[in-house]
Design brief:
Length: about 350
């Protein structure tokens, strides 16, 4: 009797092993299974005029696409607007429509007019736009970030690092989203030292948006601040920030703070060692998560907000010099997360 039971158990084990061996092995991530299954996802992304390689905003979005291609097994078409107007941006979006892309992601609030037009032309496609929530449509989703929260943290670092009691802020263009960076930075610095002076300059005002791509203007603004005594300069100015870094590198005892991406990691030469930290605007997470949501079937419009609670913002720690200020920055983070600190947006 015992031999018959043992034989039966052995046969069952062999059958189970055979079944396991024959079954295909899949990644546990359900999004990968969807990507390999019935529907092939082809994402389109339209960068603003600086395109990939700006070491800032566009590159952060590009990192999200790269991650989606690797982890979610999607295909992607990437384009850059050829002209800085609604016509050029609409043409970029239509190019992605023709490529069969869905969803289509527009990088930056300057795409608002183009998204409104092209989304109305193609109600069967889902469009996502970063940094704008003015387009109200069933097939448009807005990805909005709490830039003021991340800027508050680097403002704390600036005040802790400053020896002169004077720090600077450079905004690319005087628009509401950039004023959020300024407001948070100033509030963070003053939370450490209420008497600290925060000098601020905006490189251009609408309808002139060249302040996001004029390194010469960024360099001149930073040099003027440094001459006036600022020893930490935070730039939220896109490609113009590279010019401000050059001005900081040419001075003695002055720190730069980068934005969007970890700009210490991409800098070279004398500039690299002078970038204390960068405010990380996790556009990469926003892009990746929007593609992930699309794959899982969430294809409705609306607004998605990214703040400290969902890892939408942060700061870089690549430069070892920032370590002495991390404790103060983390205390500020916890105050914001607990609600004890209300960060202004203007």
């Amino acid at each position: 009797m015992r031999r018959r039971i043992t034989a039966a158990l052995l046969a069952a084990a062999v059958a189970t092993l055979s079944a396991c061996t024959a079954a295909p092995v899949h990644d546990k991530t359900d999004t990968k299974l969807i990507g390999l299954g019935r529907e092939a996802i082809h994402v389109g992304i339209a960068y603003d005029h600086a395109g990939r390689g700006d070491k800032s905003f566009n590159d952060a979005a590009g990192q999200g696409i790269d991650r989606a291609k690797k982890d979610l097994l999607v295909q992607a078409t990437e384009v850059t607007t050829k002209s800085e107007d609604d016509e050029g941006r609409s043409a970029a979006l239509r190019e992605l429509v023709q490529a069969g892309s869905n969803p289509i992601i527009a990088v930056g609030f300057l795409y608002a007019g183009a998204v409104k037009t092209v989304a109305a032309e193609h109600p069967d496609r889902l469009f996502a736009i970063i940094d704008d929530d003015s387009v109200q449509a069933k097939n448009v989703v807005s990805l909005i970030f709490a830039e003021e929260q991340g800027s508050f943290l680097v403002g704390v670092a600036a005040a802790l690092a400053s020896k002169s009691g004077r720090v600077g802020f450079i905004g690319g263009v005087d628009v509401p989203v950039i004023r959020k960076f300024w407001a948070g930075y100033e509030a963070g610095a003053k939370s450490v030292d209420s008497s600290i002076r925060v000098d601020s300059r905006f490189l251009t005002k609408p309808p002139d948006f060249s302040g996001f791509g004029s390194p010469d203007k960024g360099k001149a603004a930073a040099a003027a601040m440094i001459d006036d005594g600022a020893d930490v300069v935070y730039s939220a100015a896109g490609g113009s920030g590279q010019g401000s870094f050059e001005a900081v590198a040419a001075a003695q005892g002055v720190w730069a703070i980068g934005v969007d991406s970890d700009q210490y990691a991409s800098a070279e030469g004398k500039v690299k060692s002078r970038i204390l930290t960068s405010m990380l605007k996790r556009v990469d997470n926003g892009v990746f998560q929007e593609i992930q949501a699309f794959i899982k079937g969430d294809r409705s419009g609306g607004v998605r907000r990214y703040d400290l609670k969902v890892d939408g913002l942060g700061y870089a720690t690549s430069n070892p010099a920032i370590k002495k200020y991390v404790s103060g920055m983390e205390k500020a983070r916890f105050r914001i997360l607990s609600g004890a600190e209300k960060v202004p947006t203007s």
